[in-house]
Amino acid sequence: MSEPIIQFNNIHKSFDGVDVLNGINLHIRPSEKIALIGPSGSGKTTLIRLLMTLEEPTSGTIIVNGENLWHMEKNNKYVLANEKHLQNIRGQIGMVFQHFNLFPHLTALENCMVALMQVQKKSEEKAKLLAAKMLERVGLKNHLTSYPNQLSGGQQQRVAIARALVMKPKVMLFDEVTSALDPELVDEVLQVIRGIAKTGEMAMILVTHEMDFALDIADRVVFLDGGVIAEQGTPKEVIEQSNNTRLQTFLHRFRK
Fold first, then answer.
1. Would you call 233 helix, strand, or coil by DSSP?
2. Helix, strand, coil in percent for the chain, rounding step 5
């Protein structure tokens, strides 16, 4: 068994005295695909925001590829990580949000070039080549010079996926990436993610309410409820065979 690429160890997180995560222990292997499910307010998005350093845990440790995310060693003791340490580890993680977060004044190609040039210090020529290749991979070869307002919601989300992928992360996070889309556009985005998952290039954590999608691509489904992991296992075990009452109540709304 390979060492985990991500380790959440006894993670707690509270906001203004309200506990959102209550002792999360979750280890994710390289190339493993995790579907994170649960009702609103269960802590799913908070968990991945901690991994992106958008929030800081109240207590507990997060290990990314063998390195402590929020602390670093200095003079033989652990101290709070500085921005350089956070950036180095954050560079191994890509995230796609619900609402695209594209720069409206930049084309699809330019949106995918920005981080390559500013973070990885690629030349404009090299960045353009890599960005174009990734946009082609997500089916947008003919939209390189389109601005976000000229694209459908599904196309915009595919640009956002390409923008994350072009950085070659070791872990990809998807936070309800289809929830802001019209129903007819959902499948085009899910098909792109399926294609990425099948390559096995990276670990993936997907916060999703698409249960058929989770059954299809996840190695493991993790059900969060009240800030704790209430159930986890193979997609079949969790989605089709579990007797957990809270989980059954949650899943009932997705059954036709």
1. strand
2. 40, 25, 35
Helix (H) or strand (E) holding 223: strand 220-225
Q: Which two tokens stand for residue 225?
A: 């409820």
Beta bridge partners of residue 30, listed in sequence order: none
Residue type, 67: E
Beta bridge partner(s), residue 6: 28, 64
Chain centre to alpha carbon of residue 49: 9
Beta bridge partners of 26: 8
> Which residue matches tokens 């070039």?
113
| Termini Cα distance of the chain | 38
State both tokens at 221.
Answer: 């489904």
Cβ neighbors of 101 (< 8 A, separation 6 or more) are 160
- pTM over 0.90? The answer is yes
Spans of the chain, pLDDT less than 50: none
Instruction: Write down all domains in the chain, each with its CATH number in brackets.
Output: 6-92+169-252 (3.40.50.300)
CB atoms within 10 A of CB 253: 9
- Res 1: pLDDT: 58
The pLDDT of residue 43 is: 93
Listed residue (27, 33, 58, 46) closest to 226, CA to CA: 46
Q: Residue 134: which H helix or E strand, with range? A: helix 124-137
> In sequence order, which residues have a C-beta less than 8 Å from that of residue 112 and are 6 or more positions away?
130, 131, 134, 135, 159, 162, 163, 166
